[in-house]
Amino acid sequence: MPASRVGQANLVVVANRLPIMRVDDETGNSKWVTSPGGLVAALMPAMADFDGVAWLGWTGEQTEYTPDAFDHEGIRLIPVPLTDDERELHYDGMSNGTLWPLYHGKIEPPEFHRHWFEGYRRVNRRFAEAAAAAAAPGALVWVHDYQLQLVPGMLRALRPDLRIGYFLHIPFPSLELYCQLPWRNELTLGMLGADLLGFQAPSDAANFHQLARALGLATRFGPSALEFQDRPVQVRAFPIGIDYHRYEQAATDHDILDRARSLRAQLGQPQIVMLGVDRLDYTKGIDVRLRAFKELLAEDRLHPSQVSMIQIAEPSRDKVEAYVSLRERVERLVGEINGDFGRVGYPVVHYIHRTQSFQELLAMYRAADVMLVTPFRDGMNLVAKEYVASRLEESGVLVLSEFAGAAHQLKEALLVNPFDIDGVKSAIVAAATMSPEEARRRMRSMRRSVARHDAVGWAASFLEALRS
Ligand code: G6P
Questions:
Q1: What is the DSSP letter of 346?
Q2: Higher model confidence: residue 327 or residue 32?
Q3: Residue 1: per-residue pLDDT
Q4: Closest ligand 1 atom, CA of 379?
Q5: What is the mean pLDDT of the chain?
Q6: CB within 8 A of 177, min separation 6: which ones?
Q7: Which residues are near ligand 1 (CB < 6 Å)?
Q8: What are the chain's domains?
Q9: How many CB atoms lie within 10 A of CB 285?
Q10: Which atom of ligand 1 is nearest to the CA of 317?
């Protein structure tokens, strides 16, 4: 390989998004700050072990505003420019119009368009080429998520000297669902380019193991590995965690405690504060919990003077039709509930369609007696873990969907089937009326689990497995 093609980084992270966002400072100039996402916090400690770390990704902005590579907090950030057209085909189209709904069990119908896949392939190639140019000889490359499924295979063809890992943050579907993809072989071969494939849950890993064999692309090499082109590919679960200590520590902050108290006062000091925090996404079951809440109020099983709900719905993927119609559905339901049960100055549901700061979220976790996490399907769901980490006094009840990856670890939550509205209603009532002793016993056990499986341990164990 010509020397000019080989880079300096001994660890290269390849993710659709760079871990930064542009904000305006006091003088009105824009600057880049680290985004609040968990991935960068998880990787930071592990990155310290590497001499030269690069992170490749999209800035979320148009090509003309895409900067050249620059250093940020010890990481070489390499922006991958995408044109509007490419963003439409790769991000809105194939990633969020095909793979996202399919992998989440077709809650919304996926669309299959050849031009979307061509755009996806083109963008994946750009990422693979940029990774190949950034990596030092024999470097580790860690590719993330469904937007970049072809990258491991493309990268191996360019740089067979690299150790390549791939982690899927979302569920991996069953054989029957996945096989609907017209490009199932190419997408599977893309993943098989890695040395290590990581999934959120053992069932996701098992689905991939079965698929690769069923398509006749790889053979069994033990229960957690495949053989592909005379080389082993490890296939394992690495359930992702959060930066537990950051949440635990922030939860003791006086400003945050004050804010939590003032939130409850602003709500009119209800006995029970319920909270939902999600991206506005149809997989999250926001409409389910609103419908359950509405029926409970109508049946007098909850009373509007005693209970208040806050629902944060962060704007997301608003160029994709299914997200636009979800927003209409959710906002109609919020309007109906407040119209039927609210009073002047006291709506029952407080709905916020904006991104919240870390501090504000923390204050909400501190203020909430009941946390509602009811996705139809979710790879993990870190909000559930964040709530648990923030409950220092071991009070508070988590209502959690069985179909979130987090349910494998948070067995002491009130587990619900989000497709069973009566079951969700019963769990909400059980949460609102649970004795403090029982809540404490459950919360204590969940806190231990979240602390034990934190983000830093997750990144370290993946990289350790990739290295060996
Ligand atoms: C999920 C995906 C991530 C994605 C995030 C936010 O967690 O697994 O890959 O970055 O949603 O979605 P967005 O489309 O805004 O990047």
A1: B
A2: 327
A3: 40
A4: 8
A5: 95
A6: 102, 103, 105, 106
A7: 16-17, 145, 169-170, 316-317
A8: 3-240+456-467 (3.40.50.2000), 244-452 (3.40.50.2000)
A9: 28
A10: 14
